């Protein structure tokens, strides 16, 4: 079955509005650009013993978690990145303490992947994006 078969059809022949480009397209472009800088911060968080689980927050608005490391207005990009940790996410209630073990099971090697908490108007979610080789 094709995905199109699952989508609502337009029986009245009305033209569909053009689809908006997903914000994740611009996020991927920015993460490629930011990759080396984010990896450098991740390694610093690990080496300085701040956390064994760095988390980066990608957003286009103002958020109150983590510390800003890459400002979209200064860099003329679409996304701002803030550095945080698993501990801060638990302290702020973003990750429920009872779900911490479940989160850790899915957490990927921070030397190879950036853990990014992406915040968009529709909601927020974690993604893992590989660092450039």
* Gap from first CA to last CA: 37 Å
Indicate the low-confidence ranges by residue numbers.
1-9, 14-18
- Radius of gyration, in Å, reads 18 Å
- SS element count, helices: 5
Number of domains: 1
Proportion of helical residues = 25-40%
Q: Biggest sheet, in brief? A: 5 strands, mixed
Query: What strand order characterises the main sheet?
Result: 2-3-1-4-5
Q: Averaged pLDDT, please?
A: 87
Topology as a string of helices (H) and strands (E) = HHEEHEHHEE
Class per helix and strand makeup: alpha+beta
Q: How much of the polypeptide forms β-strand, as a percent range?
A: 15-25%
Dominant shape: globular
What's the number of extended β-strand segments?
5
Region (Disordered): 1-23
Biased composition (Basic and acidic residues): 11-20
């Amino acid at each position: 079955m094709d995905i199109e078969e699952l989508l609502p059809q337009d029986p009245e022949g009305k033209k569909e509005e053009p689809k908006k480009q997903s914000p994740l397209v611009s996020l991927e472009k920015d993460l490629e650009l930011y990759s080396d800088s984010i990896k450098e911060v991740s390694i610093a968080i690990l080496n300085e013993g701040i956390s064994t689980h760095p988390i980066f927050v990608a957003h286009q608005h103002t958020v109150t978690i983590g510390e800003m490391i890459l400002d979209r207005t200064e860099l003329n990009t679409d996304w701002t990145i803030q550095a945080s940790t698993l501990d801060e996410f638990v302290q702020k209630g973003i990750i429920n303490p009872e779900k911490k073990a479940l989160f850790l099971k899915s957490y990927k090697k921070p030397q190879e992947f950036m853990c990014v908490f992406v915040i968009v108007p529709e909601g927020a979610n974690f993604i893992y994006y590989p660092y450039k080789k």
